[in-house]
Amino acid sequence: MTQTRKTTDINDEYQQRLLKMNRLQKQAVNVYPARTKRNTTVADFLQNFDSLLKKEKKVVLAGRIVSIRLQGGSCFLHFRDFSGELQAFIRKDQIGAEEYQLFKNNYDLGDFVEFIGQAFITKTKEPTLLVNQVIILSKSLLPLPDPHYGLKDPDLRFRKRYLDLLVNPKVKEIFDLRSQIIKSARQYFDQHGFTEVDTPVLQAVAGGAAARPFVTHHHALGIDLFLRVAPELYLKRLIIGGYEKVYEIARCFRNEGIDHQHNPEFTQLEAYWAYQDYEFLMGFMEKFFEFLVKKVNNNGLKIKNGDDILNFKPPYPRLDFKEVLDQALKIDLDKTSDSQLRSLAKKAKLVADHLWGRGKILDELYKKFVRPHLIQPTFLINHPIELSPLSKKLPGRPGYVERFQLVVKTAEVCNAFSEINDPLDQEQRFKEQKKLRAAGDEEAQGADQEFVEALKYGMPPTVGIGIGLDRLVMLLGDVDNVKEVILFPTMRPKNN
After folding, report:
1. From the annotation, which residues make up the binding site for Mg(2+)?
2. Rounded alpha-carbon distances, angstroms, from residue 150 to 110, 142, 156, 303, 421
3. Where are the strands (E) in 232-329, listed by range?
4. Looking at the chain, which residues constitute the CATH 2.40.50.140 domain(s)?
């Protein structure tokens, strides 16, 4: 199926395939059997080919037909399973004239088929399965995309990922990489004594990050609940409860715009470590990225991304938020009022909404003037307190907190800070967030009084970090759209 195939063409082929299915069923063929006798895979068949060829041993393989070449009384085809692709050779005199006609007239590209046969090598020395029997496992009623043209339309690719995976081999490579990254991340934290946990996705208060939440309703309890924007406040409850190292690979939800770096549903790894601080954690994360990149990059630390070669060899530069913003804007941040910052934002053609507080303005100015220049792995440290309502204050620097972000190729890959363990300080910060929310800021954090109560029982000095796994896959997979690394991204519904 090319990109220009008409709906009427698809409907016509659908009707033709229905007729073929009916013909098979009239011959008492079960076109959707529940079982197969497959006893080997394509990869194993190819690996053991010489031995199978010598012994003339019968094997049973199964897979989806991806090409067919009919030649009178014989047929060459290729079929594919999860492990690879293999050629099969079907002859009329081998399987019988009646069975051959049944196959020739009623089987299509896309059908799942079981083949019983033995190893055979062609004149061109291609390893092949000489077929003795053909058994259909699943009749395909719609045509696959044309393998020559592939599936190019991004919108169609993301909506019909199953077809994307079938005809674009590199897509599967990205998701295999994603799986490897998550396994390696889990391995690293497990090796360092962390306990993996699960915390609620449905929460009474949307806390732990500045974001607009999704709202749902629980009918039995008669209450509104929020899809979590972060697992943070529950993970810290576990630190209060006696755990010292916990992490969660968490699906999170933020009711925000969609662009090349944002999807409303995303995955992050969030971890908390008692008796440590953000300075220690920067070193720990440098070792984490060294471990991870080597795992997925054949032991190398340099990754190609677009026109850049990203080098993950530690140590990474550490840039102070105030210093880099002062330099970029030619100001002294501590002596610049909110109104002056708003004017700077307007001059920079940022849509400075009247609801933006100082923290939001600073964040947008940083994204405009600083972040676009951060290509190699770089720690941005010591953020203004308005940007970090859950971070511990930086000693000796009023108005700043112990926080870092790791930025690579202009994207925030992880965010970490020394956690507030002063319940009265946390309570005051929540009150300030509540005022922002009352003023109309839908991204202000919810005030979780139950968490404040938990803090009053005491929490040791703790550091926490969130790692955006989707963005990490984008970086290491050299793709520039988050939809490429999420199997089923959020899409606008079609009218029909």
Report:
1. 412
2. 14, 16, 11, 28, 55
3. 245-253, 265-274, 302-305, 308-311, 318-320
4. 7-148
The whole-angstrom separation of Cα 448 and Cα 23 is: 65
Rounded Cα distance between 388 and 161, Å, is: 38
**What distances in angstroms separate CA 190 from CA 286, 413, 419, one per listed residue?**
17, 20, 22
416 in Cβ contact with 404 (< 8 Å): yes
Quote the radius of gyration of the chain (alpha carbons, Å): 29
Greater pLDDT, 222 or 438: 222
Mean pLDDT score of the chain: 93
Q: To which residue do tokens 């199964």 refer?
A: 62
| Record: fold of 166-317+376-484 | BirA Bifunctional Protein; domain 2 (3.30.930)
Per-residue pLDDT band for 3 (boundaries 50, 70, 90) equals: very low
C-beta of residue 302 within 8 angstroms of C-beta of residue 311: yes
Fold designation for 7-148 = OB fold (Dihydrolipoamide Acetyltransferase, E2P) (2.40.50)
For residue 460, whether the previous peptide bond is cis, meaning omega lies within 30 degrees of 0, is no
Considering the chain, tell me which residue range(s) the CATH 3.30.930.10 domain(s) occupy: 166-317+376-484
Q: Which residues contact 106 (CB under 8 A, 6 or more apart)?
A: 20, 21, 23, 24
Q: For the chain, percent helix, then strand, then coil, each to nearest 5?
A: 40, 25, 35
Q: Rounded to the nearest 10 degrees, what angle do helices 321-329 and 358-369 cross at? A: 70
**Helix 358-369 to helix 338-347 angle, to the nearest 10 degrees?**
40
pLDDT, tens digit, 9 for 90 and up, residues 228-260: 999 999 999 999 999 999 999 999 999 988 999
Q: How far apart are CA 33 and CA 47, in angstroms?
A: 29
Binding residues: 412
Specify the DSSP class assigned to residue 316. Answer: P
pLDDT tens sequence across 267-318? 999 999 999 999 999 999 999 999 999 999 999 999 999 999 999 999 999 9
Helix (H/G/I), strand (E/B), else coil: 275: coil
Write down the pLDDT at residue 1: 33
- The alpha carbon dihedral of 21, 22, 26, 31 has a sign of positive
67-76, 386-395, 402-411: the lowest-pLDDT one: 386-395
| β-pairing verdict for 58-71 and 318-320 | unpaired
